[in-house]
Amino acid sequence: MGTSLPSPSPLPCEEVRVVSLLPSLTEIVAQLGKGEQLVGITHECDFPPDVVMGKKVVTESFVDPKASQREINDRVVESLAQNNSLYALREGAFRDARPTHVLTQSLCDVCAVNFEQVKSKCSRLLADDPYKLLSVEPQTLRDVRDSIQVVGASLDCSRAAIDEALARFDEGRASVRERVHRRLDRRRPKVALLEWFDPLFTGGHWIHEMVEDAGGSYGLTRPGERSAVMTRSDLAAYDPDVIVLAPCGFDLDRCERDAKKILYDPEGEHFEWWSGLRAVRESEVYACDGNQYFSRPSPRLVEGIEILAEVLHGVATTPRGEEGARWRRLELPPR
């Protein structure tokens, strides 16, 4: 689950200085009470706002976030085929941060700086300073929970701080399951969660468990299985009761805009087949913030489970459990 590579020399007993190369790891560091020790973050780290504000940004992206989903997908496919990274370390900023701990991952080159690049640049740029390089690769909700413990141990957090963070995660999941259980007087709705629309990608890894926790059924991937491209006919044959749109890396506004442009435009290439889906005809399609609540393997996946419970069963798990705050129902345009 977590791989800690040996430091070139022993770490002295001095101030911990953390560089996080993944937004989810930044959130975990903050949950463990080590936000003040963060000295470097990625260009995508945006939570918690008070923790990331003013922190040195040590990465950059070669992907235009304003490009269309099709253009972004083509760029990703091309880069991976050529064994190129989509992101890079800003060497000067990374070196100046003088980290004692570098947190990263090797699971997905689409999500962060390539692990081999990180390892190589740490070796070169931090050659004169002792450091610890920790790679964390969660694939299930249990792995996400374990990553809290692994990061906490690596940063020498107190047992109390680690246990408190674990308890928040466990109690959050349990609370949603309990509330949903009271509403499960009928079969679990069949859910399709799409993490990309053009082309279609299923939600993978921890999504299956999130849907199950929220009182739905999910047959597009098994727990821990990667997301995958699916065809229109695959989605039609699956015939979901509910479709959740949660594009990787995009917020709620971008999700809604893309859905209306790609899927709900009567003049668009996708409208005919999309409007034929039962869930679409019955207005059981929901736009969500995939970036904050579904894509990141952080403790806030619990909020993603809450959102799913809200749209599947009307379970308002928090005061924010209202349409518009964290999700929006999408409907076909009037004829």
TrEMBL record:
Secretion signal, residue range per the UniProt entry: none
SUPFAM superfamilies reported in the protein's UniProt record: Helical backbone' metal receptor (SSF53807)
- Ranges for domain Fe/B12 periplasmic-binding come to 137-290
Q: Which domain of life is it from?
A: Eukaryota
Q: Which InterPro entries match?
A: ABC_transptr_periplasmic_BD, Vitamin_B12-ABC_binding
| One Pfam family matching this protein | Peripla_BP_2
Q: What is this protein called?
A: Fe/B12 periplasmic-binding domain-containing protein
- Which species does the entry assign this protein to? Chloropicon primus
Upper lineage: Eukaryota, Viridiplantae, Chlorophyta, Chloropicophyceae, Chloropicales
